[in-house]
Specification:
binds flavin-adenine dinucleotide, 371 residues, FAD/NAD(P)-binding domain, six-stranded mixed β-sheet, globular
């Protein structure tokens, strides 16, 4: 029987599996998802520091749609022999969907072992445990991108927060559209923002900046920089600065290999490529899974056609800011933005135990609501 193998059990991997299962009705096909853990992690929920709320049992998504889960970490991919390598053996594929996601780029500064992060469920759990043991605290958050802003504003309710940004403005990658709303939120929450500041070293009791100043803190959180899975280097195809494979409009990266989610850069519209986000990872997964299965069974492939780009940034007790378009025009702020953010954090949870509902959602390219 032809073998479709999906590497990764995040948004892209799960929705690849379900979309491929929809195509399987047209012919014989075995679908196997390879991921090292029993749970999918809803990373957009991690800043709320409730790690249990971020876990989704893979079994309850995959079993109903008859997709196998191989609990293993992929160490290599050989596209010439069409095999993936695991720690103890290799398995063959006829078509591969690479959906192994991304990870936070490690800080290369002295004392980096003192840093916390919210990149993984274990990282968020470690931070939550550490904070539980403190009566009061000052937290240094390094980086004012999406993740830095969400964790800084979340913590501002519980302690003092110092937000350190290397650039001359907060949220340098989010552009000028939402910046006034973000700045007002940081002021409202009493967050101490240090711009043009670089952390030179980290200690058990805080950080030293490049200009020699120190900030005393009981917790230091690193949020700066994401990189695609190193497995992308095993595919003989062009990659971008984030290590993502450049895929075509059908999400094909190389002959028998499709790629989706944070490992892939796909055309989102005529002028833009996808960014690493679950709002793109989900429809990319659906298109890649459909196309890998259809390619194997000799059926027509579909073009990846995502919903228009939006963002919804949590701002803790100051609400949230929802923007539309690549210029990020502000549409909702405060409690209205927060209501939408909470809705998004609900709807990103995949359906469980219900094959009909899983396959129905897999057939729908639109996210409904995304952020
Ligand atoms: C704190 C935080 C907040 C975020 N907030 C938002 C938000 O508000 N909105 C938004 O759109 N996006 C947000 N994102 C980004 C979003 O979470 C990612 O873009 C999304 O998770 C990408 O999905 P993915 O399936 O490509 O990868 P991932 O979710 O990273 O999943 C990758 C999967 O691959 C598996 N894997 C990795 N390596 C291997 C290997 N070698 N072998 C086998 N399996 C492997 C992993 O175990 C995992 O199952 C946030 C991210 C973080 C960290």
């Amino acid at each position: 029987m032809p073998e479709l193998v999906i590497v990764g059990g995040g948004f892209a991997g799960l929705w690849s599996a379900a979309a491929a299962a929809n195509v399987r009705g047209a012919g014989d096909l075995r679908i196997t998802l390879v991921a090292p853990d029993d749970d999918m992690v809803l990373r957009p929920r991690l800043h709320r520091l409730d790690p249990g709320w971020s876990r989704v049992p893979l079994k309850r998504f995959l079993d109903p749609i008859d997709v196998g889960h191989l609990r293993a970490r992929v160490t290599g991919i050989d596209t010439a022999t069409r095999q993936i390598h695991l720690d103890d053996r290799s398995i063959a594929y006829d078509r591969l969907v690479l959906a192994a996601g991304s990870h936070l780029v490690r800080a290369e500064i002295p004392g980096a072992e003192h840093l916390f992060d919210i990149d993984t469920v274990d990282g968020a759990a470690r931070l939550a445990d550490h904070l539980r043991g403190l009566q009061t605290f000052t937290a240094v958050v390094i980086g004012s991108g999406f993740t830095g802003l969400e964790i800084a504003t979340e913590l501002a309710d519980r302690g003092q927060v110092v937000l350190i940004e290397r650039a001359a403005t907060v949220a340098p990658d989010l552009g000028p559209g939402p910046r006034p709303v973000i700045e007002a939120a940081l002021t409202e929450l009493g967050i101490d923002v240090r711009l043009d500041a670089t952390v030179a070293s980290v200690h058990a009791d805080g950080v030293t900046l490049a200009d020699g100043r120190t900030v005393t803190a009981q917790v230091v959180i690193w949020t700066a920089g994401m990189q695609a899975s190193p497995l992308t280097a095993h595919i003989p195809a062009e990659r971008d600065a984030l290590g993502r494979l450049k895929v075509d409009s059908r999400l094909r990266a190389h002959h028998d290999v499709f790629a989706a989610g944070d490992v892939a850069a796909a055309p989102a519209d005529l002028d833009h490529h996808t960014i690493q986000s679950c709002q793109f990872a989900t429809p990319m997964g659906k298109a890649a899974g459909h196309n890998a299965a259809a390619d194997l069974l000799g059926l027509p492939l579909v073009d990846f056609a995502p919903d228009p780009y939006v963002t919804c940034l949590d701002l803790g007790a100051a609400g949230a800011v929802f923007t539309t378009g690549w210029h990020r025009e502000v549409q909702l702020t405060g409690s209205q933005g927060k209501d939408l953010k909470n809705t998004i954090l609900d709807v990103i949870h995949p359906p469980l135990d219900d094959a009909h509902e899983i396959l129905r959602q897999a057939a729908r390219q639109s996210n409904g609501v995304s952020g």
